[in-house]
Design brief:
mainly alpha; 3 helices; about 65% helix
Length: about 110
């Protein structure tokens, strides 16, 4: 009975070892390498897509924060007066403190001769 038990255990271990060896050998064939590379590329593509989606969500959140911050600090909108105010006398008066040009000199400060 013991021998039959060990024979069955040995056969089971042998079958499992052969299946694992065939699986490993298939992974090393060109078709197996292409499948594993395709799986890696699709996994990488999914990771990149997830990263891009996270960045877009972060951009939208940050843009909303900036809009809120700028809207709270913005000055009130400009209101145009419908009536014209009187002109400012200081702005419309000619500058009387300017000295008259020297008749012996040209505009650039050199002698006119």
């Amino acid at each position: 009975m013991k021998r039959l038990f060990y024979l069955a255990v040995g056969a089971g271990v042998g079958v499992a070892a052969v299946r694992r060896a065939k699986r490993a050998a298939r992974k090393l064939t060109p078709a197996g390498l292409a499948d594993s590379a395709g799986g890696a590329v699709s996994g990488l593509r999914g990771s990149i897509r997830g990263f891009v989606d996270d960045v877009r969500i972060g951009m939208v959140e940050r843009e909303a924060q900036l809009h809120e911050a700028l809207a709270s600090e913005a000055p009130p909108p400009f209101k145009r007066d419908t009536e014209r105010s009187a002109p400012n006398p200081a702005r419309s008066a000619p500058d009387t403190q300017r000295s008259a040009p020297n008749p012996g000199r040209s505009a650039n400060g050199r002698s006119a001769s």
